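Bug #77: duplicate submission created two jobs. Keeping one. Sequence:
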Amino acid sequence: MSLAAISGRWTTLVLRDLMLGPLTFGQLRAGLPALSAKVLTERLVSLRHQGIVTRGARGYELTERGRLLRPLLAQLYRTGEALLAEP
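Kept job's structure:
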């Protein structure tokens, strides 16, 4: 179920950036320049519908539910780094 919440290309990178704190749409775009505005909008809408991200006065930020994904994402990145480091 956790993986279903973060499925889709770019979703993990959007969540990674939001783990640092609230970001505006423009800040998210600047941090992910290869991501089109259309796809970013789609990812944010999906994450909002799932209750993972909310949009407030300071921009987009993770909800408490979204913050529950932190250990999963951290482990995914550690595993990816280990796999890339292997010969």
